[in-house]
Amino acid sequence: MCAKFGKTYTLQQWSRAIGIRKDESVASLISETGINMTVDEFHKELYEINLKKYPFAKLMPGVMRLVTHLKKHRIPMAIASSSLRKFFNVKTSVNRELFRMFDNVTCGDDVKNLKPAPDIFLAAREAIGNPPTKQCLVFEDSIPGVKAAKNANMKVIWVPNPKVAELYPDNISADEIIFSLNDFDPTKYGLPPFDEESSST
């Protein structure tokens, strides 16, 4: 979409956009690049592009293994996504087997303040029975999400795009940084160990 106007969507711009309200990130992008589109026009065109791309989306390595493991051991799980629910439903339609294992989904239109405010994580926590915040473990790919989890007094593991991590070498607020969920050790957080026969997928 930026290329149509001779612009490049940079890694820095993407890193700032993930985890925050889309209207805010799109408005910022339009302002920075000077592309001749309104926020609504941008959303509409992006939605049409994503409708074609989402069916080919692949899970990150280790996701199915981890979620299946936690479900097997009856560990409550919730999703806290800044995406509006209508966009979340489109994004996840290709991986329904995975998302059916979660106990709750909280989306951006369910709370007043998005990341880095703690609201979305606190709402997701309430939906699964209000466990103590210090017993909640968050997996995040965005820096606003890491900050939101810490603001909610929860433990957080940052699983960033390695190139984004290089942009923010001083982001030390996360309790742990891993680059693949295959590297996650549940026993470090009081969770049951992976079965020996469990494959890394």
Automatic annotation (TrEMBL):
One of its GO terms (molecular function) is phosphatase activity. InterPro entries: HAD-like_sf, HAD-SF_hydro_IA, HAD_2, HAD_sf, PGP-like_dom2. Pfam families: HAD_2. PANTHER family: 2-DEOXYGLUCOSE-6-PHOSPHATE PHOSPHATASE 2, PSEUDOURIDINE-5'-PHOSPHATASE. This is HAD-like protein. It comes from Gigaspora margarita.
